[in-house]
């Protein structure tokens, strides 16, 4: 589906990714932007749109204009909790460029380890609204009420085995071992997964992403401008948000999929390709449950059929029929809240990833977030 002009991802940049405490997210963000600008060959003064999912930077999009020394912006946006993590900002940037509202859009996502672990806080304000039914029972943050119970429900509904979740975690490490940027590169076995401690039974430690400090930046511009830049253009073929019915993280109508099926349905309706054309999938894996839900929602297998489809992990690992999360994802590269998946997919379609490169990759799907904040993209090379 087109909003007007054809858009392309033309620059990708990362800061360092680490477990260090006390780092400034704004500094990490600027490092990532400088890397993306160098990658693309765009003059930084040509950037006239800035979009971010703010996280822990403490800066608004216009603050980055000042930090980067950009003279003027045509458009900007901050998407915080109102959108699907970093892909909210990507989709807004895409639409701004496609409509002619700006010519070169910068998207930023920066996060620190401290920010990433806020869900573990033990002091809360007085409970109001839905929280009055959760906080008195210790159900706070994403882990217990949202993901532990969802995993339990999926196992009950579809007979999904612990080993099927383990296949996602084990393969994340197979991919991250080939990614020098990843924080977790040591391999794990299925026994390691099955013996990992529970954080909210049946949710295991190795079902959860790995908080760290880092930033990612991407640059989006028009097809016409992209042809004159340093990198092979990677085009945004389709994009979609989805909230699902009765959108809520804890009390939705659909506990297992949230807005993922909504987003996936609209994505394929808008795309010029089909699910069968996808060569590589960069699927949000804040928890293994989320990755499993996205695989089924996007139609790579039937609902409740992930266990048979993943074939002990062979399907999604190196050399598999659908290589998935080739950076190691948030489970192993580290939690960057979504924009890293787009950056990884872009580099896969450029053919730049060496040992972990998926040979001949021309179509990639990217997904981000869960519940009422689900979003997805299709990228193509032409």
From TrEMBL:
InterPro entries per record: Thiolase, Thiolase-like, Thiolase_C_2
A Pfam family reported for this protein in Swiss-Prot or TrEMBL: Thiolase_C_1
Domain Thiolase C-terminal as annotated: residue spans: 253-380
Gene3D superfamilies associated with the record: 3.40.47.10
Example GO molecular function: acyltransferase activity, transferring groups other than amino-acyl groups
PANTHER family: ACETYL-COA C-ACETYLTRANSFERASE, NON-SPECIFIC LIPID-TRANSFER PROTEIN-LIKE 2
Record-given protein name: Thiolase family protein
Natural source organism: Leucobacter denitrificans
Top-level taxonomy: Bacteria, Bacillati, Actinomycetota, Actinomycetes, Micrococcales
């Amino acid at each position: 589906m087109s909003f007007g002009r054809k858009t392309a991802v033309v620059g990708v940049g990362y800061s360092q990714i680490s477990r260090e405490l006390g780092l400034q997210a704004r500094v990490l963000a600027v490092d990532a932007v400088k890397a993306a600008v160098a990658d693309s060959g765009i003059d930084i003064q040509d950037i006239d749109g800035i979009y971010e999912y703010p996280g822990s930077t403490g800066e608004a999009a216009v603050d980055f204009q000042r930090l980067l020394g950009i003279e003027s912006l045509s458009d900007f946006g901050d998407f915080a909790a109102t959108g699907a993590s970093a892909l909210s900002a990507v989709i807004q940037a895409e639409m701004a460029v496609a409509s002619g509202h700006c010519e070169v859009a910068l998207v930023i996502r920066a996060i620190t380890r401290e920010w990433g672990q806020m869900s573990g806080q033990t002091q809360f304000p007085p409970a109001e609204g839905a929280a009055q039914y959760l906080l008195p029972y210790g159900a706070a943050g994403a882990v217990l009420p949202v993901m532990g119970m969802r995993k339990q429900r999926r196992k009950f509904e579809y007979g999904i085995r612990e080993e099927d979740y383990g296949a996602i975690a084990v393969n994340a490490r197979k991919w991250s071992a080939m990614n020098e940027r990843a924080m977790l590169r040591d391999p794990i076995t299925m026994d390691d997964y099955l013996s990992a401690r529970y954080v909210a039974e049946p949710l295991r430690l190795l079902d959860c992403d790995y908080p760290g400090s880092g930033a990612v930046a991407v640059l989006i511009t028009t097809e016409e401008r992209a042809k004159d830049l340093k990198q092979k253009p990677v085009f945004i073929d389709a994009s979609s948000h989805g909230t699902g019915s009765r959108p809520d993280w804890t009390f939705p109508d659909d506990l297992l999929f949230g807005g993922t099926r909504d987003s996936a349905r609209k994505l394929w309706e808008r795309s010029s390709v089909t699910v069968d054309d996808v060569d590589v999938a960069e699927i949000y894996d804040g928890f293994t449950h989320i990755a499993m839900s996205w695989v089924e929602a996007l139609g790579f297998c039937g609902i409740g059929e992930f266990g048979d489809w993943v074939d002990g992990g062979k399907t999604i690992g190196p050399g598999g029929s659908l290589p998935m999360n080739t950076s190691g994802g948030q489970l192993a590269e580290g939690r960057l809240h979504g924009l890293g998946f787009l950056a990884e997919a872009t580099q896969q379609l450029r053919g730049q990833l060496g040992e972990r490169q998926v040979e001949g990759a021309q179509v990639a799907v990217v997904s981000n977030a869960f519940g009422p904040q689900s979003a997805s993209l299709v990228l193509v090379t032409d």
